[in-house]
Amino acid sequence: MPEKRSIPLSVPNLSMDIVENIKDTIESGWVSTGGKFIKEFQEKMEKYLNVERAVAVQSGTAGLHLAVRVLGVDRDDEVIVPTATFIAAVNPVTYMGAEPVFMDCGDDINIDPDKLESFLANQCKMVDGKVINKKTDKEIKAVVVVHVFGNPADMERIMKIGAKYNLKIVEDATEALGSYYTSGKYQGQHCGTIGDIGVYSFNANKIITTGGGGMMVANHPELLEKASFLGVQAKTDPLYYQHDEIGYNYRMTNIQAAYGTEQIDRLEDFIATKKKNYKLYKKAIAEIDGLSLLPFNQGTRANHWFYAVIVDQDQYGIDRDELLRKLNEVNIQARPLWGLIHQQKPYLDNQAYQIEKAQYFVDHLINIPCSSNLTEEEVEIVVEWLKEFKK
């Protein structure tokens, strides 16, 4: 029987080098939403992503909320979103009083460009340069694209579709920091830097972490200016506290940024480890009938954030749910794909277009341990248990 050892799914890879930064925030008193590390972290992100400006925010969700607002999404508008994603990619649409329209995924779990184009061509009409949903008679303003598990979506196709239909593109790159394109029109560009606005997350399970926090980038400086303004409570006159609009307290703290400035310096090392462990898993899992490791897209350098195993019950002998239960019983943390968002209670009445492939992944996919400090020995233990559970 394989060794029993607790192996978490995805945990932070922290260094004691951060301590000096934290000490600085305490000694200076800058522990809240001001301080030098916020500026330093933003500048390091700008350099890494090769963008003119990055704006730190309280979370990836906050960044997505600001994104849909500054792009003009309003009450009674609609936004096309994926159903195979974490719900935080969708909720900001409803924060604005708009309605999501759910789209299926392709073989890479990212939004399916073919179905996106089919929906716009067959279920919508153009009226005075606006996309109108024939079913609801509402205007569709934008598309939210999520780079699921750090796997870059087909942005070349999606951007062409967006241009054809005058749609804004929000890139949810919360899982994809470090992923970029190695061929095609966007060769050399990072996920998050191609659409109108891109958003990153530094939640504890992300490839780098600040405990929480996020970052926004945009192709148009005025969008970031507006987002930054709204994120600090929309102070028209900060001295006399004048506010002409409703804003939010969406600022990153200096303590969070103190983590980020150290973490981003180690990002490429984290990705190298994740790629190495992915290759180890891939070679080993290929020898287990009934299991396969989902590939990352060609023409990209993915950050390999999460590893997705597909379970074929007929060949493996047990179904996805039983394997999930057995792994967690021996303290190997594994999880299923998120529940499809169009099936969640708040969104049962929303339009969903030809959802087929996404359901397949719900039924057959598990994520296995993938931390950036995962050891080769731990990879071997996970694989041995996968072999053990095969019937």
Describe the protein's architecture and organization.
The active site is at residue 206. There is one protein chain. The chain has helices spanning 18-28, 36-49, 60-70, 91-95, 113-122, 155-164, 221-231, 254-263, 267-285, 313-316, 320-329, 357-364, 376-388; strands at residues 55-57, 78-82, 99-103, 124-127, 130-133, 139-146, 168-172, 180-181, 197-201, 214-218, 235-237, 242-243, 291-293, 300-301, 307-311, 335-336, 352-353, 365-368. The protein folds into 2 domains: 18-265, 3-Layer(aba) Sandwich (Aspartate Aminotransferase, domain 2), CATH 3.40.640; 267-388, Aspartate Aminotransferase, domain 1 (Alpha-Beta Complex), CATH 3.90.1150.10. The strands form 4 sheets. Strands 1, 2, 3, 4, 5, 6, 7, 9, 10 and 17 form a 10-stranded mixed β-sheet that branches. A 4-stranded antiparallel β-sheet has the order 13-15-18-16. The two termini are 15 Å apart. By secondary structure, the chain is of the alpha/beta class. It has 13 helices and 18 strands.
Q: Can you give keywords for this protein?
A:
391 residues; alpha/beta; Aspartate Aminotransferase, domain 2; Aspartate Aminotransferase, domain 1; 2 domains; ten-stranded mixed β-sheet; four-stranded antiparallel β-sheet; 13 helices; 18 strands; 18% strand; globular
What is the makeup of the main sheet?
A: 10 strands, mixed
Task: Identify the overall geometry.
Answer: globular
What gap, in angstroms, lies between the N and C termini?
15 Å
CATH architectural name of the largest domain: 3-Layer(aba) Sandwich
Poorly predicted regions are none
What is the third-level CATH name, the topology of the largest domain? Answer: Aspartate Aminotransferase, domain 2
State the name of the first-level CATH class of the largest domain.
Alpha Beta
Q: What number of structural domains do the residues give?
A: 2
What class do helices, strands and sheet pairing give?
alpha/beta
Instruction: Round the Cα radius of gyration to an integer and report it.
Output: 21 Å
Strand content: 15-25%
- The helix fraction, in percent, is 25-40%
Assigned CATH superfamily of the largest domain: Type I PLP-dependent aspartate aminotransferase-like (Major domain)
**Would you report the number of β strands?**
18
| Total helical segments | 13
- Mean pLDDT across the residues is 97
Protein name: Aminotransferase, LLPSF_NHT_00031 family
Organism: Halanaerobium congolense
Modified residues (N6-(pyridoxal phosphate)lysine): 206
Family: Belongs to the DegT/DnrJ/EryC1 family.
